[in-house]
């Protein structure tokens, strides 16, 4: 069942001689529960694509459908509400709010939607993330890996259908990277969340169901992983 | 050295990149310099202008001393404080045959030393000043009036003193201006400005029937050569019987036994004891102080004025510095993060702590460079505009002495001291502001700076980790609470800015109120005045209608004349009755004593003896003035103030209880200092009590005691023969409670209000009737003319009455002063508030800029603008509450200190904290903060989310 469909997405920055084409007629779709890696060199347009899918950036042309909703046809407020209910975002630099502790950062999206956080779920998530003894700490008192776990927790807490991760391991060491990817994969498997992950790391990319290769704003290759590979991974 | 240059170059680049914030800083500093310039140059300019006016009006000398002899002159010369002495000699009057005006038949021959011409502003119209005792200058008024005299002529003088003799066997001869009274059968020397009764005129012939002017030769006679014509000197009043003629004198050529001198003193050396030194040499009544000139020349003997001015100046300078430090410090503190990053990078390539510190100082210096001249020029412009606007009013204020308008233009007084002070204060203020941020920034290491893992100031609060706390909270509530608690450096910036705004505005308002209160008191107020009927455009004040017409007839005539309406009658009189002094409160006597002490050396006056003596004066009674309103008006007033009821046979009265004593009430003497003491209730009696009031008529026993012949004394219609009339006090009131009827305070004077029927009774128990005021509107010119003619006729027939049109110059005088002071203070308050608001705006703007990334993250997570606004409004409210909680007690303490200082200097009066105004200000600040928050957040909402999210750390 299709969750995401991108139709002829283009993104152009600037005009005239300074015009830069970041995305060019990009079209693809993602099934519900699918784990997709997007790989490509710096400047290939993968982050721009992710931001457009996440509704934090607008395409110059083209449409993004999530669960059949053309997200960019909504006004700013409706798009914000859609984002907090259906999309979870994980960034390379964590983007936790430095004034909030781990618990507060995790439940923030949920609370923004006017919902009361479920204590049991919070306990579960914190335990799942391995942050039980760090719950009251501020981001500045956490390691990079712990910060990224907290940011994943924030993305997972509201149970969004679509999880977008923009180079979540780009700032972490190998051990932490592996743990973070494992967490994301597990959420994909355990909670059935659709995961789109941007990475430079081929080993990480290979753990996905599908790899989309990008170059100069175009999808150059869209590979579904073979079952043998999949088996090999497991 | 090269490293430092790089640091400075990067700092310049940083400033350019943050042009808006740099501009706000430059504007803030320029406003500070402008205020400092306004305060310092403004004071100098005002002082110089007042000195110019005072010099022009009265003279440029500090003290005038009279009736000196050579021995006293030597003693004066020996005083350390005296720097220069000029001699003046009044040789009195001589016939002036060349006069063309019969009412000016004399010249007043004076002799001045060279400095005396200069210091008394004698100005030449033609010719030159006399250089020896044979030369003289003549007032140009003589020439204008047609006198046959010109430069080169010789005037023969033979001087005399003028005396007036009253040949009547009974009844004094007296005139009100100049105040001059000659008792029956006596001869009295005329005041200098006494006019001349010209024989053959109606006025003159009337005088010469019973009086005569006698001249007594002084023994001085001399011929003078006229060498110059001078402008009319200020002492030559138009009514004078003479023209001025001034010759030359020096110490060796003094002719008279007694002469006068003008003294210049070293104002830094003269203190309040100096006048006692002068008094001890020349006697109590033989000196005059050029108060205005001295006060504005910085004389330390003028403690009160200098205290106000210097105190106010210091207060304003400290306030300006404080506001500015807060503004500039806040701006530096707010830009800490950005600065920390680029300085961290520089630090990583070898910049030392000293170099990092220098970058902050360098930025401060660069901002000061344009701000200093701009602010100074703006300050000069403000002073110039204020001087040109207020100058004519200030001069009008001084022209109430009747010497006319001088048309002096205020000149900017830019002293090197003021310029240096402005520059130094500005530099010090800016560098103090930069001191703490510079020290903080120098301590942050390169990695911490770049990664932003260490914030300025104390470490952040750890958020408490109880998940239950999250339940039931809104996202906005949680975020605002966390932003507030965990981003203290930013929150504190706003809290500081708001607190300073509140503190400064309330303190300036409170200080202004104190100064205004002081001005009201120092002006001697308007006294007690009747407001009932003051909307009528005419009043007929009747002391006596004469023999030909009764008072009631006159009232009826006014009521029935064409064009009159709203006729109302009031009666009033000063000191009509007497209250036993024992019925006055301790508060009243204590205030009387404390004010009297100001005219004595400390410890000189015994309190018990003074009060005992005061209580025994005037037959053990104190005079009380009476105001009467028509019975129905009185009853209405009594009802409004919820007065006690009174029966058929009772005599009701309302006592006015607000009173005060001040040193200004004793005009003839000069106190050590100004003092004002409010008396809240001068009476030792209560509402509903009956008090005895005595008439002014002598009893038989009193007449015998004072050696007066009982039969020859005038007697009232009802002679109580020393017995009191019993009045029932139906209410004691403040004039504030009866403002529709009366306003103001009569100082230490006591006042009662009675109904008209009681006034009739008071008329009967006293020898003299109370004054009647008939207030009415009239729109018929012929009727007004008729009333005017009638009052003149009645006056000719022995009456004493006057028709007046509405309007009061005293009110105008007070209004001008009030306007001037209010304008200055409002401008100051407005500018200082503007700086404070700028500070608040810059703090809020800085906070919002620093939150860019947080906002971007929140938006990426699905926060709407209204949620962000809700968060920030909640945080602003927290900060507002914190600021007010901090500022309120500090403001209270500052106001208390201000009030205490004022009261300590000037006396006791009621001052209250401006609660209502503070509340209004809090509402204004809250509205301003919320509006600024909205504006800044809306601006931040337009920022590209992606750009912010991509940044490495929040």
Write up this protein.
The complex is a heterodimer of chains A (234) and B (954). By secondary structure, chain A is of the alpha/beta class. Chain A has one domain (2-233): 3-Layer(aba) Sandwich (Rossmann fold), CATH 3.40.50. Helix content of chain A is 36%, strand content 28%. Chain A contains eight helices and ten strands. Chain A has helices spanning 46-54, 76-86, 102-112, 119-129, 144-157, 174-190, 202-205, 227-233; strands at 2-13, 20-31, 35-40, 61-66, 69-70, 87-90, 162-166, 194-198, 210-215, 218-224. In chain A, the strands form two sheets. Chain A has a six-stranded mixed beta sheet with strand order 6-7-8-3-9-10, with helices on both faces. In chain A, strands 2-1-4-5 form a four-stranded antiparallel beta sheet, covered by helices on one side. Residues 230-234 of chain A have low confidence and may be disordered. By secondary structure, chain B is α+β, with helices and mostly antiparallel strands. Chain B has four domains: 1-58 and 303-457, no CATH class; 63-289, no CATH class; 479-525 and 809-954, no CATH class; 564-778, no CATH class. Helices cover 50% and strands 19% of the residues of chain B. Chain B is built from 27 helices and 27 strands. In chain B, strands 1, 2, 3, 4, 5, 6, 9, 10, 11, 12 and 13 form an eleven-stranded mixed beta sheet that branches. A nine-stranded mixed beta sheet of chain B has the order 21-22-18-24-17-16-25-15-26. A three-stranded mixed beta sheet of chain B has the order 19-20-27. In chain B, helix 15 (488-522) packs antiparallel against helix 26 (915-941). Chain B starts with a helix and ends with a helix. Chain A binds chain B through residues 51, 54, 56-57, 76-77, 80-85, 87, 89, 91, 93, 95-104, 107-109, 111-114, 116-117, 119, 122-123, 135-141, 154, and chain B through 453, 460, 462-468, 470-475, 478-479, 482-483, 485-487, 853-854, 857-867, 945-946, 949-954.
